[in-house]
Please model this.
Amino acid sequence: MDNIKIQTTQNVDIEYELASIGDRILATLLDYVFFIAYVLLLILISSLVNGKLFESMAMLVIIFLPLLLYDLILETFFQGQSFGKMIMKIKVVKLDGTQAGFGAYVLRWLLRIIDTRIFSGGVALIAILLNGKGQRIGDMAAGTTVIKLKHRVKITDTILNTVKPDYTLVFPEVTRLTDNDIAVIKEVMVVSLRTNNNEAIEKLAMKTKAAMGITTNLPHTQFLATVVNDYSHYSFDK
Model:
């Protein structure tokens, strides 16, 4: 399975498993199932109101607008996932490992017309095969790709850990970090520990110490785990 090395905002490289072409095709087909279910539901409702549901052009626009905006709406509100992607456990992310924003989703949605609609997915297939980063044209324009979420936590998982009420803060300097810093730390730890990437752990620990302005003899993994717990304690007490 192809992987992609993503440089996080803290300049730490971690590897993600790219969603395969098969995963993406199946996700799209599953989305079409939801399309069909939606249309069948509309037909059923229309039959119950003697066909009046489709009499007004304005009503037709309102009814079918969700189908047109399906990908844009779902990827925006579900952090890079449509219903099909959720089922296949894949999602859209930026190439720097951060959560894609609305602008990126808009570009992917607009260029989907070229990627998958006009040529029935042929352009998207060729682009993904040649690109090497799992990107169709829309992804290239948006700076995104699609990764697998199996066997790993999601980027959107909460950044905070549950700590005991009597937890004692170890590093008060944790207040110099941001929510994004902690999210990156947790993500890198999960991926790097799973792949035994000790170099990424060490590099992240050194950068975190520099950002906090501290030195410590704690092992890198223990230090980073402590930082996350400290930040959780600090956030709950704010």
About this structure: Residues 172-237 form one domain. The chain has two domains: 3-148, 172-237. DSSP finds ten helices and four strands in the chain. The beta strands are 3-7, 13-17, 90-94, 144-148.
